[in-house]
Amino acid sequence: MRIILVLLFGVLLIGCSKKSDPKPPVAATLVFPNKDSECTTGRDLSETTSEIEFKWMASDHTESYELRVTNLNTGITQTMNTNAISAKLPIAKGEPFSWLVRSKNTKVSDVATSSTWHFYNAGYLTTHAPFPAQLVNPQNGASLFKDINNEVTLEWSAADVDNDIIGFELYFSTENPPLDLIAFTTSTKRSQVVGVSSNTTYYWRVITKDAEGNSSNSGVFTFKAL
């Protein structure tokens, strides 16, 4: 009798137990092309195009990956889906690109996105424009409280293959796009305190300048001061 009760109890436990929910995918770690570098290993396809192999590390709970490569000059994005941890794409020579990988799993709706890396595809250029500055804080579309001095701090990051950035033009206003040049900072200063008013939406962008006269535009970010 005792054995029968134990068996019945075990069956009940199994019947009542639930399968664990599938776990969402984890973001992949990018490997190559290297961040803020010039990629010189492409296979020549023509005078204007080479084939680059993009590589990343496998991520947990992932069935497939989506590679996204964007030409920073044209804004055109190429995508490729794969089950592997590398993929080859033909891209233009002598152009700056950004790339990222999205990890997917058909059992869940969540998609994990890797960090975004920039690189130049080697070509005929002997000098390179800086990569567009990445606006770090405030995040695009954010709402944030001003400090006791009615100010917020704008922060950005920047990189250049030639390592010859000389400074940044900061445009900031309540108009979109912002046309008011409020500061030109040195290459080492990548933040600026600005005065703001409550319940007001602001727009800002950063133009990066280098010693060869090249420049790049970060694009416009917006935030609301509370």
Description:
This is Fibronectin type III domain-containing protein. With 226 residues, the chain is mainly β. It folds into 2 domains: 30-121, Immunoglobulin-like (Sandwich); 134-225, Immunoglobulins (Immunoglobulin-like, Sandwich), CATH 2.60.40. It is built from 1 helix and 19 strands. The protein has one helix at residues 2-16; strands at residues 30-32, 37-39, 43-44, 49-56, 64-71, 77-82, 86-92, 96-104, 112-113, 117-121, 134-137, 142-144, 151-157, 165-173, 181-186, 191-195, 200-210, 215-217, 221-225.
Q: What does the secondary structure layout of this molecule look like, with pairings?
A:
Layout (H helix, E strand, L loop, with lengths): L1 H15 L13 E3 L4 E3 L3 E2 L4 E8 L7 E8 L5 E6 L3 E7 L3 E9 L7 E2 L3 E5 L12 E4 L4 E3 L6 E7 L7 E9 L7 E6 L4 E5 L4 E11 L4 E3 L3 E5 L1
Parallel strand pairs: 2-10, 12-19
Antiparallel strand pairs: 1-4, 3-4, 4-7, 5-6, 5-8, 8-9, 8-10, 11-13, 13-16, 14-15, 14-17, 17-18, 17-19
Specify the CATH class of the largest domain.
Answer: Mainly Beta
Q: What is the succession of H and E elements?
A: HEEEEEEEEEEEEEEEEEEE
Strand content: over 45%
Shape: flat
CATH topology of the largest domain: Immunoglobulin-like
**Can you identify the CATH superfamily of the largest domain?**
Immunoglobulins
Q: How widely separated are the two ends?
A: 71 Å
Structural class: mainly beta
Counted beta strands: 19
Whole-number count of domains: 2
- CATH architecture descriptor text of the largest domain: Sandwich
Unreliable stretches: 4-8
Main beta-sheet annotation: 6 strands, mixed
Helix run count: 1
Radius of gyration: 24 Å
Helix content: under 10%
Give the rounded overall mean pLDDT.
Answer: 91
Organism: Maribacter arenosus
Protein name: Fibronectin type III domain-containing protein
